[in-house]
Amino acid sequence: MTIHDFTSQSSLLNQFITEMRDVSIQKDAMRFRRNIERVGEVLSYECSKVLENTNETVTTPLGTKDTILPVKDVVICSILRAGLPLHQGILNYFDQAENAFVSAYRDHIDDGDEFEIVVNYMATPSLEGKTLLLVDPMLATGRTMKSVYDVLLRQGTPKNIHIISVLGSTEGLNYVKKHFPEDTHLWIAAVDDQLNSRGYIVPGLGDAGDLAYGTK
Ligand code: URA
């Protein structure tokens, strides 16, 4: 796996993430969603630089120009519900992409720290031979990402896989590195060192789905 981790780069990404973490700013759900969306836009642009490309010629009013464009057979697949603002940010840039949605949740056993991942809804086009952008803002344990990927494979084998995430843990990164194909790319704005016993990233930012939609 090729990991593109922007944690230590000073850039606007850090501003967006810092606002998302900040308890005095993150209460503004609209701003929180917009910040996730902005991270999606920046990571889409970065990702577009390494996608397979095609040579095309464009006709202008004054002539023609040869150009190089990223492939168009892109499917964005997000994990409900926290994935929705990130999905929108990516779709803002990959605006011709197909879209897929999967619902997955953590089922805590006896309300304890142990949990299983339940995938209970999927709407997706065929993925056979396409470029899959697999989207979840929080790459905490990596287990949700892997469970969703296993279910998605029933819809065909993508040619290229790019995981796009806002914030991850070192453990989550190691997990996906181990369980995804070697040629997968991971694009992530920031990585924290720790996970707590309930699988939350520390210091992290809290529950991204609740913060994005003002639920508890
Ligand atoms: N999901 C979240 O929303 N936050 C975490 O820290 C981990 C998983």
UniProtKB/TrEMBL annotation:
For this protein, what is the EC number? 2.4.2.9
- Does the entry feature the keyword GTP-binding, yes or no? yes
> Required co-factor?
Mg(2+)
Q: Which InterPro entries match?
A: PRTase-like (IPR029057), PRTase_dom (IPR000836), PyrR_bifunctional (IPR050137)
Give the catalytic activity. Answer: UMP + diphosphate = 5-phospho-alpha-D-ribose 1-diphosphate + uracil
Membrane-spanning intervals of the chain = none
Pathway where this protein functions: Pyrimidine metabolism; UMP biosynthesis via salvage pathway; UMP from uracil: step 1/1
- Family annotation (Gene3D superfamilies): 3.40.50.2020
Keywords linked to the UniProt accession: Allosteric enzyme, Glycosyltransferase, GTP-binding, Nucleotide-binding, Transferase
Top-level enzyme category = transferase
**Molecular function (GO) terms listed?**
GTP binding; uracil phosphoribosyltransferase activity
Q: Which residues form the Phosphoribosyltransferase domain?
A: 9-215
Q: What does this protein do?
A: Catalyzes the conversion of uracil and 5-phospho-alpha-D-ribose 1-diphosphate (PRPP) to UMP and diphosphate.
Q: Which family does it belong to?
A: Belongs to the UPRTase family.
| NCBIfam families from the UniProt entry | PRK00129.1
State what protein this is by name. Answer: Uracil phosphoribosyltransferase
